[in-house]
Amino acid sequence: MPLNWEVELNNVDKIYSIGNDLFLIDNPAIVSAFNYPFKLDINAISICTNGYTKGSINLKPYIAQAPSITVMASGQILEYEHISHDFSGFFFIMSEQFANSLMTNVQERLSLRLAFADNPCLPLNRSEMEAMLDYYDLLKKTKRIEDLSIRREMAKHLTLAFYYALTYQSHILSGNEQLSKQNVLLDRFMNLVQENFREHRDIGFYAEHLCLTPKYLSKIIRDSSGTSAGEWIDNYVALEAKALLKSTNMTIQQISDELNFPSQSFFGKYFKRIVGVSPKEYRGR
Asked: Which residues contact 86 (CB under 8 A, 6 or more apart)?
């Protein structure tokens, strides 16, 4: 069964909501729901004030060590591997409709999304953390405004300002990172796989787009990441399949079709080769 956000949020003690669009959470209880790869249908921001979390977003590993902030977008696949016993933080949960309403310009919205695609977790210094928490407190204070339409507009502008501050921080971080040519190629390959793995699972497709031979691409990817290009492609397909099996009510046949397999039987054999169990067994765990 897919995660029911309304049920999960009802189980949280300290929560501030603005209609059904924006939820502010003063404790990390919500993360306990993610004990398997889960495809997000909401947008979320996590401010880590103590301890750390470790996991992956679209197969890219991250560690959110306090003080830090992590930005997660609808459509991404989140998986928590470990949450420290002393973790504490604050969460923003935003509906897709609310997040899209922040910017009417599609290109500007895309640029904002891309700013966090490679760096979803941003370290913060003390003053930056204080600034982020000030935004959070301001958003909570809009709860006092009785007129819902005014409250929602204020929340939109404050959230947009919050995102712009994060984007600025993301650009500073990216500018300070000196990437090798191999890492740049790895990043380009990973982005291509993320965009095309449903239709293309052959290395030749990606090698052609990167103007390389399949053999050279495989060597560079393995040298850079310790994982072969073919394994990365398989891992993306398996991750998407896991998320669909656990977080949707789609049938196995529908998931097979969604991932462009020639048959459910072929999909089942492919999934079992990578995961070790059949799609039905994985769903039933």
From this structure: 50, 51
pLDDT tens by residue, 263-275: 999 999 999 999 9
Under the banding of pLDDT at 50, 70 and 90, the label for residue 144 is confident
Q: What single string gives the DSSP state of each residue in 176-243?
A: H----HHHHHHHHHHHHHHHHTTT---HHHHHHHTTS-HHHHHHHHHHHHSS-HHHHHHHHHHHHHHH
The rounded percent of the chain whose pLDDT value lies above 90 is 28
Architecture of domain 181-284: Orthogonal Bundle (1.10)
CATH code for residues 5-176: 2.60.120.280
Q: Is residue 246 within 8 Å of 236, Cβ to Cβ?
A: no
Residue 36 CB neighbours (<10 A): 15
